[in-house]
Amino acid sequence: MRTENQRAWFFVLPVLLLVAFNALVPIITVVNYSVQETFGNNVFFWQGLDWFEQILRSDRFHAALGRQFLFTFLILIIEVPLGIVVALSMPRKGFWVPICLVTMALPMLIPWNVVGSMWNIFTLPNIGLLGYFMNDVLGINYDMTQQPFSAWVTIVVMDVWHWTSLVVLLSYAGLVSIPDAYYQAAKIDGASPWKVFRYIQLPKMKTVLTIAVLLRFMDSFNIYTEPFVLTGGGPGNSTTLLSIDLVKIALGQFDLGPAAAMSLIYFAITLLVSWLFYTLMTKDDAK
Amino acid sequence: MAKITLSNLRHSYLPAPAGPSDYALKEIDLDWQDGGAYALLGPSGCGKSTLLNIISGLLTPSEGRILFDGQDVTDLPPAQRNIAQVFQFPVIYDTMTVRENLEFPLRNRRVESAKIAQRVAEIATMLEVEDMLDTRAAHLSPDNKQKISMGRGLVRDDVNVVMFDEPLTVIDPHLKWKLRSKLKELHQRVKATMIYVTHDQTEALTFADQVVVMQDGEIVQIGTPVELFDRPQHTFVGHFIGSPGMNILPATVTDGRVTFEGQPVAVEGAVKGEGGRTELGVRPEFVSLSETGLPARVSKVSDVGRHAVIEAMVGDTPVKAVIGHAEVEQGAQVHLAFRPDQTRLYRDGWITTEAMQ
C-alpha cells in the first residue's frame, strides 16, 4: 500500500535542522577551505580546483588510497564469512544464548583507543604476551614496530577481533527469525546442509548482511584511532591509511586547503562505494 | 503409498515423565489405511501436531513403534521416510522461482530431469499455477505460496503419506473454500494417503473420509463425519462437533431408568454398567417444543436465519434446541421433548446406552 499523504515530511524537519548544523554546515566549511589557500592570520586566497588536481595526481595519495582499499578488502573478506560461520554455530535457544551474546558484544563495548593500546601492549615484541609468544616460544620473527608485514597482520587481526562480532550479531538476528517450519520442510524435502544454508539461511540473512557489509565497509574505510594508536601509521608509511594521512596533512603540516580537498575526495569515494555495495546487494529484490 | 501403523505410541516432552499427565500423547494404537483421506481433529494442545511430527519423523516418540507397510521406521529421519508435509505457514524458498521450488524435492533425490519436468508440469496443472512457474516465489500471494508448499509435497509420486498441519490458517476465508475443495480433488486424483490436522470441524468434516478426534493426547473416536455427528462415543466429541454442540446434561439412573431434573427421559436403548458420573447427550437438532414434556423457560433466543437456536432452562440446567424461527420469545414457558432414538446416556464421558436396532 502506498500512501499519498506528504505531511510526514513535517516530522522530518527537526531532524533536518539538526543534521544541517552538525553535518551540512561543517561540510560546506570544508568545501570553502578546499578551494582556497591560507598562510594564517585568517587571510585566504582563491585557488580554484588546484588542490583537487594536486591530490588526485599525488603518489602519496594513491599509495594511501591503495593501502586503504587493501585493508578494507582484507577485513571484509575475513569478517563477513567468519561472522556468518560463528553466527551459524551459536545456539538458537537455551542457557548459552545470553552468555554467547554478551561475550560477542564485549569487544564492541571497548573504546577504540583502548583497543589500540591493548593490542599495542599485547603485541610488543619481547614484552607483550603475543610478541613474546611469537618470538621466544614459537621462534617466529614478529615485530609490528619494525616489519610492515607484521604491522599489517596486527592491524587486520585487531580489526577482526574488534568488529567480527557486529557481523555475528546481525547475522544471528537474521537466523533466529527463521521459523522452525523452514528447517523441517527442508529436512522433508531432503535438502543437504549446504542447500539449507544457500536457500533458507542466506536469503533470510540477506537484509541484515547488507547492513553489516555497509557498516563494516564505512567503518573500516574511515578507520583512524586503532591503527593510529597501534602503529602510528608505521613502520615508515606502511600502515598509513587514508584518514591517518589526512590528519598528517591537516594538523601535522597545517595544509588546510589540500586536506579539505582530500577529505572531500575521500568522502566521495566512501559514498560511491557504499552506493555500489547497496545497489549490487539489493538489485535482486526489485525484480 | 503405504498403510501406516502406530503401535503403543506414547510421547512426552519431559526427560523423565512420571504420571500420565506428563505425556503429550497417551497410548495411541491406530492404523491409517493406504489411500485414505484422514482428518485429525481436536482443540489446540490436544497433541495432534505432536502425533503428526512423530509420523513425519521430526520427533522421535518416547515409546512405541511406527510402521509403514509393516516396516519399522521409528528411527528413520524424515528424508528417508518418503513423506511430505505442508505446514501451517507457507514454506517456500524465496530466492527460487515457482518451478525451482517444485523441482527442489526431486532434485535433492537425484531424479532424472525428464521425469522432473513431467512431474512439475503435472502438478502445476493440478494446482493451476502453470502461468506463474517462472515468477520468483517470494512475490506470490499467501494462498499461492501455500499452493506451492502443497505442490512440493505432492510432486513426488512415491510418498507414503502427505500430511497437512492446519494448512489453511493464513488463507483468506473466501480462498479457504477453494483450496479445500482443491485438496479433496487432489486426493481423488493422486490416491495418496493424506492426513489433515485441524481444530476446525468444518475443514475436517469436508476433507476427510475418516475423522480421528483427539483430546488431551488421547484418541476419543474414529469415524466418518456422519458417525461422529450421529452417535458420538464420548461427550467431548458430541460437544466439539456440531454447532451448537451436543447438550450434555447431568442425569441420574435408577433401575435402568433415566431421570433429568426429576423428570423421566427415554433413551435410545438399554443402559449398560453402573456407577460413575452419568450424563444425557442429545443434539439441539433433536430437541423440540411440544405440548407435554420437560417444562422449561426460554432464556435466550438467537435467530440465525434458516433456523433459531434457543436456550431454555430446565430447572437450573440450560438446554439448547434448534427450532424453526420466531416460534417462541424469550421468557416463554415451554415444554421440551428429546427424540428418544437420538438421546444417549454417557457414563464418565463414554457412551453407555445400546444402539437402537
From TrEMBL, chain A:
Gene3D superfamilies under this entry?
MetI-like (1.10.3720.10)
Question: Of which family is this protein a member?
Answer: Belongs to the binding-protein-dependent transport system permease family.
Please list the residue ranges annotated as the ABC transmembrane type-1 domain: 65-277
Q: How does it sit in the membrane?
A: Multi-pass membrane protein
Q: What is this protein called?
A: Glycerol transport system permease protein
Q: List keywords of the entry alphabetically.
A: Membrane, Transmembrane, Transmembrane helix, Transport
Localization of this protein: Cell membrane
Task: List the taxonomic lineage.
Answer: Bacteria, Pseudomonadati, Pseudomonadota, Alphaproteobacteria, Rhodobacterales
Native source species: Rhodovulum iodosum
KW Signal (keyword) present: no
Transmembrane region positions?
Answer: 9-35, 69-88, 95-112, 118-138, 150-173, 260-281
Q: InterPro entries under this entry?
A: MetI-like (IPR000515), MetI-like_sf (IPR035906), Sugar_ABC_transporter (IPR052730)
Which Pfam family, just one, is annotated for this protein? BPD_transp_1
Automatic annotation (TrEMBL), chain B:
Keywords annotated in UniProt: ATP-binding, Cell membrane, Membrane, Nucleotide-binding, Transport
| UniProt domain ABC transporter: residue ranges | 4-241
The keyword Transmembrane is assigned to this record? no
The protein's matches in PROSITE patterns, at most eight in alphabetical order, are given as: ABC_TRANSPORTER_2
Q: Which InterPro entries match?
A: AAA+_ATPase, ABC_transporter-like_ATP-bd, ABC_transpr_FbpC, ABC_transpr_MalK/UgpC-like, Mo/tungstate-bd_C_term_dom, NA-bd_OB-fold, OB_MalK-like, P-loop_NTPase
What family is reported?
A: Belongs to the ABC transporter superfamily.
Q: What is this protein called?
A: Glycerol transport system ATP-binding protein
Q: Which species expresses this protein natively? A: Rhodovulum iodosum
One of the entry's Gene Ontology molecular-function terms is: ATP binding
